[in-house]
Known about the structure:
It contains seven helices and five strands; from the N terminus they run αββαββααααβα. The protein is α+β, with helices and mostly antiparallel strands. A three-stranded antiparallel sheet has the order 2-1-5. Strands 3-4 form a two-stranded antiparallel sheet. It has helices at residues 10-27, 45-50, 73-90, 95-113, 116-119, 128-134, 139-157; strands at 32-36, 42-44, 52-56, 62-67, 135-137. The chain is elongated. Helix content is 56%, strand content 13%. The two termini are 22 Å apart. Helix 1 packs antiparallel against helix 3 and helix 3 (73-90) packs antiparallel against helix 4 (95-113).
Amino acid sequence: MAKKKSKIKIGKILTLVSVLFALTAILLMFAPALVNNDTGISYTGAQVAFGYSASSEGLISVTVKILGFSSYFLPYALALAGVVFGLLSALKILPKISAFIATGCCIAAGVFFFLAVQMAVPVSDNLVETFRKTFTLAGGAISSGVLSLVAGALSLSTLFIKK
């Protein structure tokens, strides 16, 4: 009895797993990315990337802008590009070039996720030094960085697998 050939190839499975890891890294933008060591206040990746303003209600409604739009949106954009090019690679649309671009985007996003403290922009210029000293990475940024780096490694491995 002859063996039946499998239609699903290992490279395609690894590419799809890479896409899932990159998507998970993007969805972790709603997890805490920065935490203040002194007060314990944390900010999500979306708040760090796109800005955040807090408001308090009472006799007088006060809105204070804390974080401004920063370059921390870059890792999310790069991870999204990694997803798109990973899907193109899985669909066999320019598979080698798409896999190279997906690898580069995911690895660059993984590195940028670990730079959340340096990329965050407090609204007041005189608070930059204290901001950099008191804030550290939280679980969302670390998890996103690791998942993006693993997605990049999986995407790179598909270039060397023949099956």
